[in-house]
Amino acid sequence: MIRRIIRFQEICQLGACLMLPIFFSAGLMGQDDGNVKSPSSTLHATHILGFESISKNANGDLSIQDQTLRFQTGEGSSAGVELKSIQDVFLGEEDKETGGTPMTVTRVAAPFGGGRVIGLFAHKKYDTVTLEYLDSDGGLHGAIFQLNKGLGQVLKTELEGRGVHVARAEGETNGLQQAGEKK
User: What are the φ and ψ backbone dihedral angles of 159, each rounded to 5 degrees?
Assistant: First the structure.
């Protein structure tokens, strides 16, 4: 009887180990961090908040057209900011857990602490881009966008190339060594 219980536990452990790759093979193949586009193309983004004419969490395309940074939703609404009115651009990173309720149930149901392992693979990284800009009356406004990992840097580089001021993170020196610093 004890042999049968030990054998059952071994089969359960083996089954749990084999199920993890099956659960996540489709999700891992779907994630592609190498989709960095050229700066002149439109970037798919999510408008978190900031533009009054665009609803929060609306998906659309972010592009630079005629010295204007334009966000166009799939429904046809659009909003834009002139590049000369942008005061600052901030780039950040965000990490979100994907999968929703089904993933949470799977994590709870995984035997032998397997939920923690599932949690390691159930995250997706995003870039956030925050714009500070002035309206036609001189009022300060802001807009926040969420882009796939790596695309925030592409937008930042394109805006920098067009003369927009981009904020630097602490300790970032743009590859140049300051006088008196040692590497």
Answer: -65, -40
Say whether pLDDT at 39 is over 70: no
- Label each residue of 60-92 as H, E or C: EEEEEECCEEEEEECCCCEEEEEHHHEEEEEEE
Which tokens hold the place of 116? 């923690």
Tokens 């140049």 belong to residue: 176
CATH of 40-97+123-161, one of 1.50.10.10, 3.40.50.12370, 2.30.29.30, 1.10.510.10: 2.30.29.30
Q: Is the pTM of this model over 0.70?
A: no
Integer Cα distance of 66 and 45 in angstroms: 19
How far is it, in rounded angstroms, from Cα 70 to Cα 64? 6
- Per-residue pLDDT of 107-157, as tens digits, reads 777 787 777 777 767 778 899 999 999 988 888 999 999 999 989 889 988
Domain assignments of the chain as residue spans, ordered by start: 40-97+123-161
CB atoms within 10 A of CB 118: 20
